[in-house]
Request: fold
Amino acid sequence: MKPITSLGKASAVAAAGALLLTGCTGGVPETTDGGPIDTSGDLSGTVKFQTWSLKNEKFTPYFEDVIAAFEKEHPDVTVEWIDQPGEGYQDKILSQASSGTLPDVLNLPPDVAFPLVQADQLLDLSEAKPELEEQYNAGGWEAYSQFTGSDGTYGLPWYLGSDVSWWNLDELESYGVSQDDLPTTVDGWLDLGEKVAAESDGDTMLVSAMPTMDVLLANGIELMDEDGTFVFDTPEAADLVQGYADAYAAGAMPAEALTGSYAGNAEMYLQGKVSYTTGGPGFAGDLETKAPSLLEKTVATPRPGTPPLFVQGLNVANTSENKPAALAFAEFVTNQENQVEFTTLAAGFAPGTAEGADEVAETVAKDMEPAQAEALNVMFDALDGARAMPFQWTDAMTDYATQQLALAVRGDISAAEALELTAEYSNENRIDE
Reply:
């Protein structure tokens, strides 16, 4: 299973693939005009279904049961399950599209789906069956609906993840901070960081990472306009970055967070260097293994502001010769019942449906360490408002932003200048042009 916290890493490959697909001739089957697709009638034929590194002891019985149930419901349909290894999956997808061998139903995160959307190789689900939207998580649906230059929605949210906040409450109580006092906004967190740093003479630090685009998104700052232009270099964003600079100057942020030796905010928390970090529910397991004395002192709360969303989905090929059965099967795999069962097996993930998270949490919590179960509940509760980073934001843009924002946090350049330079670089290196 691909780690869904690393979405965006395939974007450069996807962009290159878009050129390949849009320019290819010969092998790719022609797509058909869009319009509603009726999945309620008699279905027949073969549906090829492709997953990403999920054929193993843990998940194979699940998929075999799901396929058997669908074929029992539709006895004239045969589902052929294909599973691709994790390594080289993006290249495999592009090769299949170029040679006209895309499976009918396949698993693509938004960044890998992008070149196929550009080449009209994926079915617009909002046009094929618009009533589907209300059945799925709003942020997950949106993640498959923001492809530059293409209206429509090109994936059904399948399984989701997010981060939560982790606080060393034992440390913070020394400065009069209780769990009820923990901040719920980015500004509140930065202010608390400065307060605690001042009262502890810099011994307790709460700002454990650089400002990033997902922090801007969490603070309600628009990253892109409808044309795909990056527009985050605003006074509001500059104020937020300046808040980090003020916190750094006040001693609320370790210097190593701005350097190449930075091991990550979660690692610094495990080492006791900071009293706050972000991470998924599985971070409780790291605490239990690497820093058990911290585990009982740590509490999990929602991320300040709008929480991030990591999403995987199922897509239907627009080149499929059996779209009614393909769409019906994609719906079946991603319905609430089947998603609940899948995410019960894939502990730490949530269903991509509008409901069902509570059922998953209740089922898996009894087998989890209490701190992890609590973190899972916190994450699931936050998913309704979670939003995904635009897939157009690439690793190269992250690297450049990190360099410029580090200068701003240190006070070498202004926050406004750092954001202006980053926006300029990002727009000059857009993957969708």
